[in-house]
């Protein structure tokens, strides 16, 4: 093929390939999260990656593009379909479709990839994994308090110690009360309210100055792209900023030394809004539940928590990592939020015409994985590969190797026969090293005639060879290589594997 005819191998912007070591480490992390969710009584559920676009409705993520931030297409009957942008909207559809047969409350967890048709950037991908847990059918805020406690337990099960994370809680009703206080109440202001909420949700990323621009005239980012602002005046912006605060401080004007003081200060800013005061009272209940369960040192009321999606109707919460690390520029940085969620009592209602209370949270798997890696809690290089059975030059060796591999697999041992093009043991040994194999099995024509096999422990051999200075000495010693009867193959390999854990 001519050079000009070759396809260019390129990864689409905003997507990533994950290698075997990363996937195995991620799988262990997910298993730990799953164990905590199961301990709380949640059951697994899997929904498809594609939903009808109208099932997603107007509850769409933050967007930098005119196509609503989702990947959409039409099928052959001209129905619009979209890749899911989160795991909550598909859950609402599933609950509505199967409502009569599901237990209420319905407690479920899901893990899967979600897709955002947004402008990619550093650490911002168009495909990423989430791990959600939700309770549908529980109207009281005890379910919200439990979600916050479960989030805290997940962090500690993953090895993030107390003091290195904080679960922060607010209430969208309080924020709605603030909107009413600045004149943004009513259905006619729904669009501007959402712009304000999405602006506040960027506080940890853009800081107070960036959020102030988004609350006002708008903001141009480093690439030159302009995001339209909510158009608030200076007095309105001051009221909002007083509530949410500045992460550099890091306190708002209402943040007190205790939840009781914070909630009292919130109430004073709400201007008598019935909606806002209802939200503050719900926060009082949550705080009491958290205190009673012994989680008050890990779960705090924080007026800066917003969550950017429109469907939240009550308590909202985020898990923030508070420890510092060093970024690629050598600067001190924090990972910030790695999980978040809240109450969405109106989402199932869109399908059923009646309110169905629900609450839950979502873990950003990739972000949390990176944080655990920074803490040294992720091991990506220690997984052993398969046992490799080498193949001699004659054809009979292939059939014999297949028989040995079948025996090893039958004994539950991960193994493979070398299927490359080389029939020399040298390149085959290099292949086994690259596969991080714990040992190789060698049976040449002479060994077959004598009914024996050579088994080489590659891990022990590498350790012993460090003390051998010459190639001749190494060939004479053959460190960690043993000859055993053919019938002892499985037992010998199993002993090597046991020795290496």
From TrEMBL:
Main enzyme class: ligase
Domain of life: Bacteria
Subcellular localization(s) per the UniProt record: Cytoplasm
Keywords: Aminoacyl-tRNA synthetase, ATP-binding, Cytoplasm, Ligase, Nucleotide-binding, Protein biosynthesis
Annotated Aminoacyl-transfer RNA synthetases class-II family profile domain residues: 1-386
Enzyme Commission number(s) of this protein: 6.1.1.21
UniProt-annotated binding residues for L-histidine: 86-88, 116, 130, 134, 307, 311-312
UniProt xrefs under InterPro entries: aa-tRNA-synth_II (IPR006195), aa-tRNA-synth_II/BPL/LPL (IPR045864), Anticodon-bd (IPR004154), Anticodon-bd_dom_sf (IPR036621), His-tRNA-ligase (IPR015807), HisRS-like_core (IPR041715), HisRS/HisZ (IPR004516), HisRS_anticodon (IPR033656)
A molecular-function term among this protein's GO annotations: ATP binding
Subcellular location, principal: cytoplasm
Entry GO CC: cytoplasm
Reaction(s) the record says it catalyses: tRNA(His) + L-histidine + ATP = L-histidyl-tRNA(His) + AMP + diphosphate + H(+)
Pfam families (alphabetical): HGTP_anticodon, tRNA-synt_His
GO BP term (any one): histidyl-tRNA aminoacylation
Alphabetized Gene3D superfamilies for the sequence: Anticodon-binding domain, Bira Bifunctional Protein, Domain 2
NCBIfam families, alphabetized: hisS
Subunit-structure text: Homodimer.
Similarity section: Belongs to the class-II aminoacyl-tRNA synthetase family.
Protein name: Histidine--tRNA ligase
UniProt source species: Tepidamorphus gemmatus
Taxonomic classification: Bacteria, Pseudomonadati, Pseudomonadota, Alphaproteobacteria, Hyphomicrobiales
């Amino acid at each position: 093929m001519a050079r000009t005819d070759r396809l260019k191998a390129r990864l689409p912007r905003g997507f990533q390939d994950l290698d075997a070591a990363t996937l195995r480490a991620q799988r262990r992390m997910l298993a730990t999260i799953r164990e905590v969710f199961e301990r709380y009584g949640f059951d697994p559920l899997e929904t498809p990656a594609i939903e009808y676009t109208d099932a997603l409705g107007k509850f769409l993520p933050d967007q930098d593009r005119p196509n609503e931030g989702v990947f959409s297409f039409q099928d052959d009957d001209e129905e619009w379909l979209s890749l899911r942008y989160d795991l909550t909207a598909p859950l609402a559809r599933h609950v509505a479709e199967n409502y009569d047969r599901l237990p209420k409350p319905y407690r479920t967890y899901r893990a899967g990839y979600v897709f955002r048709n947004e402008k990619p950037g550093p650490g911002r991908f168009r495909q990423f994994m989430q791990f959600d847990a939700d309770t549908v059918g529980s109207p009281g805020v005890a379910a919200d308090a439990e979600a916050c406690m479960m989030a805290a337990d997940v962090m500690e099960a993953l090895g993030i110690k107390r003091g290195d994370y904080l679960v922060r809680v607010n209430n969208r009703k309080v924020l709605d009360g603030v909107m009413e206080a600045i004149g943004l109440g009513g259905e006619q202001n729904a669009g501007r309210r959402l712009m304000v909420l999405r602006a506040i949700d960027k506080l940890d990323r853009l800081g107070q100055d960036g959020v102030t621009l988004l609350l006002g005239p708008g903001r141009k980012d480093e690439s030159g792209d302009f995001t339209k602002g909510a158009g608030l005046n200076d007095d309105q912006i001051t009221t909002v900023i007083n509530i949410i605060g500045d992460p550099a401080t890091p306190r708002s004007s209402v943040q007190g030394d205790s939840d009781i003081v914070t909630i009292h200060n919130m109430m004073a800013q709400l201007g008598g809004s019935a909606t806002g005061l209802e939200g503050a009272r719900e926060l009082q209940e949550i705080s009491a539940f958290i205190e009673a369960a012994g989680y008050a040192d890990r779960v705090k009321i924080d007026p800066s928590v917003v969550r950017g999606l429109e469907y939240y109707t009550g308590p909202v919460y985020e898990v923030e990592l508070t420890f510092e690390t060093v970024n690629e520029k050598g600067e001190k940085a924090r990972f910030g939020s790695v999980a978040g969620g809240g109450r969405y009592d109106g989402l199932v209602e869109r399908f059923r015409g009646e309110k169905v209370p629900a609450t839950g949270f979502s873990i950003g798997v990739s972000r949390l994985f990176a944080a655990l890696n920074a803490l040294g809690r992720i091991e990506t290089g220690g997984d052993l590969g398969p046992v490799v059975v080498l193949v001699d030059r004659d054809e009979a060796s292939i059939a014999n190797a297949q028989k040995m591999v079948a025996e090893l697999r039958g004994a539950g041992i991960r193994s493979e026969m070398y299927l490359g093009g080389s029939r020399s043991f040298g390149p085959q040994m290099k292949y086994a090293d690259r596969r991080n194999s714990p040992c190789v099995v060698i049976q040449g024509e002479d060994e077959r005639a004598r009914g024996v096999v050579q088994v080489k422990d590659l891990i022990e051999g590498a350790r012993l060879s460090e003390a051998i200075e010459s190639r001749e000495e190494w060939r004479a010693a053959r460190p960690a290589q043993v000859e055993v009867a053919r019938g002892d193959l499985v037992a010998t390999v199993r002993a090597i594997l046991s020795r290496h854990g």
